[in-house]
Amino acid sequence: MAEQKQDVLQVRNLKAYYQMAYFGVEREVRAVDDITMSIHENEVYGIAGESSSGKTSFIKVLAAAIRPPLRVVDGEVEFNFGGQKIDPNKASKEEVDAIRWSKLSYIMQGSMSVLNPVRKIGRSFEDFAFKPMGLPRAEFNSRVAAHLERLKLSPNVLNAYPHELSGGMRQRVTIALATVCQPQFIIADEPTTALDVVVQKDVLSMIRTVQQEMRASVIFVTHDMSVHANITDRVGIIYAGRLVEEGPTRQLFAQPKHPYTAHLVASLPRIGDTRERPALEGRPPNLSDPPKGCRFHPRCPLATDRCKQENPPLVDMGEGHRVACFHTDKVKPLIELGQPKVTRMAEGAPA
Amino acid sequence: MFKVVADLIRYNIEFTIGVILLTIVIVFALLSFFSPYSPEMIYVVIPDQPPSAQYWFGTNSRGQDLFWNLSFAFRNTLFFGLTVAVLSRIISITVGLLAGYLGGWVDRGLMFFNDIFVAIPIFPILILFYFVLRSDLDTFRLALIMACLGWPFDARLIRSVAIGLRSREFTRHAVFAGMSPSRIMFQEHLPYVMPIVFSTAMANMIWSIGFEVTLGVLGFTNINIPTVGTTIYWANNHSAMVVGTWWWIIIPVTLIVMTFLGLFLLAISMNEYIDPRSRLRRMGG
Amino acid sequence: MQDYLFFALKRLVQLAAVVFAGVSAAFVVAHYSPISPVETIIGRVAGQSTFSPTAIESLRQTLNELFGLNAPLHEQFINFWVRFLQGDLGPSLIAFPTPAMTLVMLALPWTVGLLTVQIIVAWLIGNILGGLAGYYQNNRFLKAFGVMAIGIQPIPYYIVAFLMVIIFGFLWPVLPISGGFAMNVRPSFTPEFILSVLRHAILPITSLILVGIGTWFLGMRALVSNIVTEDYVTYAELAGVDRDKIVYSYVMRNAMVPQLTALAMALGGIFSGTIITEQVFSYPGLGTLLIRAVNGGDSTLVLAVSSVAVIAVASAIFIIDLIHPLLDPRVKVG
Lengths: 351, 285, 334
Description:
The complex is a heterotrimer of chains A (about 350), B (about 280) and C (about 325). Chain B has about 280 residues and is mostly helical.
């Protein structure tokens, strides 16, 4: 872990709020509240958190896909594509369009609805990839065909309409679509959530294969900790709009330093384990009126008066393991992981 | 309920304009209860007087004070629209909820009828009714006929909502609790479709009053009952535009346009209130 | 292909059902009309000259046979359908003895012309502008158009047509406000005649489009402002797909499908509006004929016009239904 890798993405003190006023009531929802992190080249970075923790808003900002009422209030996002630096939220639309799909691509949640229902898949490939690839038509077609073959998809899918494919098939087509231009950075937003387990495994191994072949960086968002254990190199935990813990996947699973992470890890089901798990009380806070101090304190068993007043800063514990908690010494893994089984399913798979 | 209306008036310009326009028209129609003249009487004032301090809306060639005559006309026309709206709502709620909740053959059968009613051009049918009934075609009979023709669009809308409600958790609870289908439909589901019922009622009134005016203008209703349509009928009959009694045409047309606009604005602002997606758009705007 | 034929067949059955129900209803209603065509003719003939009572009685017999009124109701009903399918409903009264169907067929092209031009123009322009207004929500021109559409759309056809007549007939008389072509030109394929027809069509068509366009504009705008939040649009925007392509192939293309359904649903109303407008402009179509028939107490002609109206609208809906699966691959055919 000592080797210093190049950063492809740096996020500095990013704040993005939903600001709205309707029927005279003004509301501000702090969906992303002061997040600083970076992503190296050729790594899969996982983002975990409950629903409405702000993780979707966070990656929307990364992808420059925000619309009012969501606005970037402060901080910056900087991509570095081989020396070409760009903040997609500040650059012009033309500059951003120039990197979209060729360098920065996106796999979206909900395979059911991300493809135009009245357009054949082949036409979608043309719409999305023809211009960024900038190749003559014949070469473009053969490139698409080769890419589909590499991902073990039949070329017939190009002649199908989205509704004619199964859910898993559709998600695999979407992944092919997102990777056909060989992007350097892929944002994957819950790409496996709606799929059944067998298909999920397929799709995960597919993403891993493509990533390794292209040496791309992937930011992988899901609330499912077992998926993180399977595919990511590093994981960041987001709670109530803040990054509360970040570290190499193995280490974070084996030795969580934040009480919230400890609960998330403990919630992983394990075969043969019938012990009752301590459940987390309460619900995630309302982001339009978050609690003072550490936002986790109302649910935290270790909370002290200090937690109720001060916001714990993100502290580096060594080896890139960063935690935002005053009581890291008291956090114990809630379950023994034993020999952590963080094998990657795609490892060793034929390329 | 009251708070919703207050909020809408304060923050939704369409709703506010709609309420103002309709209030003017309704107050005007209600004034008819204080009219010094009976609406059937003719030659009670000097004919063909332009609007003045004495005759605010002028007088027509039949010697009627247009102000009072029109207030009767608007009372009748609005009452007609309301009757059609209420009656056709009853049919469309019944059909929509039945088809949506029961599904299956009931649904297919009702929707088959529904499609037939949608496909039949209404105006020739109304004229056919006039042809048979002649002057027996008074406001109430016409309202009955229109109600029988004016339900299918809204029934389809209510049906689609009811289909959504059928698969909701609380419906299943109600079924397991042994509630009868009719109680589920009319106690559990009806409140959910009420907002649609209100907003479609506005659209329905625009539709029915539009036909009433048209039939009236053509003289295809009982022309001795003052309505907006028959007022214009008599004006045409006396060639009002040609002889220069323009107020006889312009004033009723202006008022009826205000009515339509008011109803329409209410309908669209209610629609927006019902549909949270368009509300969200407004928030972002 | 076989699926599509089956689908078409099913729609055809539905078409037949609509026509049967509509025309039968018209027959039954007309049957109970207090005005007997036979008595009307006799009244007219007897008023002109003196006839002996026996002559009138034999005339009555002849006419009753001619109209098929001697048989019981169910036989009359069957006879009506047999003759209807042969395109013969008997003589009209207002232009006795010209067959009612002949008059209807003379009027039909005018109405179909108004209807077709108006629907195509209003539907296309309304949808395109409405689509753009839904996508570019801050465009000033489109916003102003939206306000205008809201202002005109709720006004019934008759009032709009009537206002057009007032404006162009009395205030600024530049266009003909009455008839299908000028009195002094003969119907023929001459430039003069065609020009006259076009000039006379301007006001009725404009009036119809004014009312129609707002409906499509507002409907499309609402649809599009929902479709732009759909995942496939967001996704295409994330991919940097061309703006024009997103607007037309992603947003509007998807909104076309419900708008086509809406067109089928609205046809009956549009038809009613068209024949009302015809009457205002004395346009020689079905509407004017229908009003003339009612005023002349011509039950045969009223029945003929109503029946043809039902068939015309149902057939148009049938055609739209057939186009539907071509536009939306998700429609299950078969």
